[in-house]
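INTERNAL AUDIT FORM
Audit reference: QA-55
Scope: verify that the stored structure record matches its stored sequence.
Auditor: D.O.
Record contents follow.
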Amino acid sequence: MMAEAPILEVKNLHAHAGDAPLLTEVSFSVGRGETVLVIGPNGAGKTTLFRALIGAVPFKGEVVWTRGTKIGYVPQKIDLERDLPITVEEFFKLKTGGKETVDQKTIREALLAVRLPDAYAKKSISILSSGEFQRVLIAWAIVGHPDVLLFDEPTASIDIAGQETIYELLHELQDAHGLTLILISHDLSIVYRYATQVLCLNRRQICYGAPREVLTPKELASLYGEGRTFYHHLHGEHL
């Protein structure tokens, strides 16, 4: 029996800002239903990669999605002031730019999927905690039933307990809807716990594969620089 084709295949991707290279020589493939964590230091090109994957920045090379793939994307920063006097429901309706209506039933179902009561639809986004707002963003991203969810640092500005809840939610949604997850993270413990594959970037591809196979001390030093100490035992459970 033939193996299922990857949902995403990237070949020799290069991205530049003017003459400055942002990413070079990036090649990897993602199987349907996998969880890929993208790691690397600040300025390594992780967000640039995501923007290339959705065609938001020019690049050279190939980015091939399986025909008909629907993509949900949540950037690290939403261009929205949290003190704007809009409700969660109104925020959902911004998603379509007025081209079509997101009905209340769809919003309610999306909120329940991330463990928020449907009463949250009427709440102002300004009163939500960081963790609640991240749940709203996940709910917002799954409207339209995407096949793939790209999430740039889903637990930024959330406390440790809230981070665990967010990752649990993402994987509940993955199991329930067959999602493929591609996430940016700075937390190696999350990589070891949840990722089926890890992509290591530092302006170029350092490694790609199963975390316990490719995250060797040598590769981590190449990724983050010599002199960094990593407390995660490669076959353990804690960072």
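Auditor finding: record pair retrieved intact. The domain at 8-224 is CATH 3.40.50.300 (Rossmann fold).
Action required: none
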